[in-house]
Amino acid sequence: MSQASIRTAAQPPADLWGTMRTARACRSFTADPVPAGLLARCLEAATWAPSGGNQQPWRFAVLQSPGARSAVALGASRSLVTIAETYRLTRPEPGDGSRRARMARSVFGLHETAAEVPAAVLFCTRKLPHVSPLLAGASIYPAMQNFLLAARASGLGALITGWHEAAEAELRETVGVPADWDLAALVVLGWPRNAFGPVRRKPVAQVSCLDTWQQPFIGSAD
Amino acid sequence: MSQASIRTAAQPPADLWGTMRTARACRSFTADPVPAGLLARCLEAATWAPSGGNQQPWRFAVLQSPGARSAVALGASRSLVTIAETYRLTRPEPGDGSRRARMARSVFGLHETAAEVPAAVLFCTRKLPHVSPLLAGASIYPAMQNFLLAARASGLGALITGWHEAAEAELRETVGVPADWDLAALVVLGWPRNAFGPVRRKPVAQVSCLDTWQQPFIGSAD
């Protein structure tokens, strides 16, 4: 697909507010593939994000080959151990329909079939001299967020994972990531099995303040 | 304003794609204030972002007091030195209407009047154990990006600055940021003096790859 055709492709209009409010983590996908043109459209949205000095220090690696998918699966498998420990997740009984059981089932299911996710994108960022490691994230995670919103608006479900840290050496090796680039995130996505609900978040009043840490911000005070 | 009224406030619909494509950095604002309710709406959009384990390790400090604004101005003034050096910016002649001169003029203008920006928000993030400094950004910069998109959709212009690093001690002191929280970004915003154009970015084909670093991603190949 040419750049021109990506840029002019008819995108169904999507309401920004509704998209942001329902861009939930998705862990359960149908077997349907994600068309490359659609991925490219979401990646183009990623490029529209800001970065320090507009340097655009990003590279997006779409992972499809058996070798790349092995590294993805390895990262998932190692991450599952940590996640299960951290959240004290146990494999739920087959008949358990509680919210926690459903969550646990989707976590185990996703991690154990990670090689087969419909699509996986590794977000890489060039190391920037004189930029703190935290602030370096300001030049890659806005791009990732644009990508997630574009995916949501296209009907796709996505999940940010930390699998790239659990299998960093293997991913670097198979993809050939240069030493002066960092792995920032591994996002998996596909067509969601379930409907999107709104996100669950703390209210603004609890997470904002005016001038000093304890003073409520009046725009959000009850 | 109550949380309920924020949540149900009539938001003019905004097209996600057009918003993302025109969310450019803005350095020149009118003197008009930004209503607190509008800031709160943009902050609510920030809360809809993803974060690791949905921990929402964020706090958004709206900076208005003279003390807080002094620290903002100090950060801007110190940053200007670095920026002018890095980009070899010199104060343009009054009659110079070139693109570079206009850019330089807006950079000097913004940094030298930083205390008077219509609005300034400090994005803070709680230090997360067992999370790398880069990956910690994945739990705050998506929120910042949602905030920027919400601001753009509301007609506001915004700029991500690194002023919080240049005046970290002073900002921590005046705001009272706890030691176990990091400063992630200082965003300034207001009503833009000029029209929004589309962002300028490298094409997807140049910044994406398939499986290996040098292999073009077919969805974006020409």
Overview features:
homodimer; alpha+beta; NADH Oxidase; 14% strand; disordered N terminus
The counted number of beta strands of chain A is 5
Please identify which CATH superfamily of chain A we are dealing with.
Answer: NADH Oxidase
Named at the architecture level, the CATH assignment of chain A is 3-Layer(aba) Sandwich
| The CATH topology of chain A | NADH Oxidase
Largest sheet of chain A: 4 strands, antiparallel
Regarding quaternary structure, what we see is homodimer
Tell me, what's the shape of chain A? globular
In short:
2 copies of one chain form a homodimer. Chain A has 222 residues and is of the alpha+beta class.
Describe the structure.
- Two copies of one chain form a homodimer.
- By secondary structure, the first copy, chain A, is of the alpha+beta class.
- Chain A has a single domain, classed as 3-Layer(aba) Sandwich (NADH Oxidase).
- The first copy, chain A, is 41% helix and 14% strand.
- Chain A contains ten helices and five strands, in the order αααβααβααβααβαβ.
- The first copy, chain A, has a four-stranded antiparallel beta sheet with strand order 1-2-4-3, sandwiched between helices.
- The termini of chain A are far apart.
- Residues 1-9 of chain A have low confidence and may be disordered.
- Chains A and B meet through α2, α3, β1, α4 and α6 of A and α2, α3, β1, α4 and α6 of B.
